[in-house]
Every structure is written in structure tokens, then in C-alpha cells.
Design goal:
Radius of gyration: 19 Å
Strand order of the largest sheet: 2-3-4-5-1-6
Number of helices: 3
CATH topology: TATA-Binding Protein
Strand content: 25-35%
Oligomer: single chain
CATH class: Alpha Beta
Number of domains: 1
Shape: globular
Number of strands: 6
Structural class: alpha+beta
Distance between the termini: 67 Å
CATH superfamily: Kinase associated domain 1, KA1
Order of helices and strands: HEHEEEEHE
Mean pLDDT: 82
Largest sheet: 6 strands, antiparallel
């Protein structure tokens, strides 16, 4: 009887994690690559946010290159002005039900083997697109990140 009760208890505890998976907003990349992950929220619909980001990537060509764009995912590359370093950039958009706005999970990962502390290069790649597009002035804009999710965030000095 105790075995059946213990099994039911464990199934209940672990079965819930299958039904309600724990969200992982920032996948941890290879430790030899600098990276940055951040979350932005807007009171603006995702279709408008997506279009604005894509237009800004295209406007900042050839520094930024659009790889692919769907309504909820944007992929691009950033190449440093000296042409030495390249970063892979991804924006994942999801509508927010309560406000009719948009939640954007943005990440930038250096493709070459680099020091994990990049003085905020990956953060600045993301923020430059956001700032230049005017989205930082959008209603309901909020940014959430920290030094664990975005290496070098505290050291970043972005030239916009």
C-alpha cells in the first residue's frame, strides 16, 4: 500500500511537469561563445513589432543581414565593422493575451570562439536594433535581463 501511495505521489509531482513544462527563456549556449539573452515587452501588437525589427535590420545592412523572418521568429546575423566577429541573432515573438501586446525574447550569440565576457557586444547588437527602430519609445516598453542571461551587460557601452 505504501508503494502504491508513493508511486501515485511521485507520478503526481512529476506528471505535472510534463503537463506544465517549466519555461526556459534563455537557452545556455556553448560556454566558449559570448552571448546575451533579454526579454522585451511592448503594448504594441507583435505584427507591428516584427515589421519594425525586420525593417531596421534591412536599413542597417550590411552590418546586419536578415536570414529569415516569419510573423513570430526573426533570424539575422551581425558582422562587426572590422569584419572579424559575427553574431547570430534571434527574436522570438509571442502575443500577450492580457494587453494585446507582444513579448520578445531576443538573443545574440557570438559564432567564433571568444571570451565569454565581450564587454556587452552581444547586448549592444540587440539594443542597437531596438533603439534605432524607435521601439524603446513604444508604449509599454520594458526590458528584462541581467548579467547571468546577458554576459557583459553591466559593462556595455553601446554606441547608437
Amino acid at each position: 500500500m505504501k508503494t502504491v501511495l508513493a508511486s501515485a505521489l511521485l507520478l503526481g509531482l512529476f506528471g505535472c511537469s510534463v503537463a506544465f513544462p517549466i519555461p526556459v527563456p534563455f537557452p545556455f549556449p556553448d560556454p566558449y561563445h559570448a552571448f546575451c539573452g533579454t526579454i522585451w515587452t511592448f503594448a504594441t501588437p507583435c505584427a507591428e513589432v516584427s515589421t519594425t525589427i525586420v525593417n531596421e535590420i534591412q536599413a542597417l545592412s550590411p552590418e546586419y543581414m536578415l536570414i529569415s523572418a516569419t510573423p513570430l521568429t526573426i533570424k539575422a546575423n551581425h558582422t562587426s565593422p572590422d569584419g572579424i566577429s559575427v553574431q547570430d541573432i534571434t527574436f522570438s515573438l509571442s502575443p500577450t493575451i492580457l494587453t494585446g501586446g507582444c513579448r520578445v525574447s531576443a538573443k545574440s550569440i557570438s559564432l567564433g570562439i571568444t571570451s565569454p565576457l565581450d564587454d556587452g557586444l552581444n547586448y549592444c547588437n540587440l539594443y542597437k536594433l531596438l533603439s534605432a527602430s524607435g521601439l524603446t519609445l513604444s508604449p509599454g516598453f520594458m526590458e528584462m535581463t541581467n548579467e547571468l542571461a546577458c554576459l557583459g551587460y553591466g559593462l556595455s557601452k553601446c554606441d547608437i
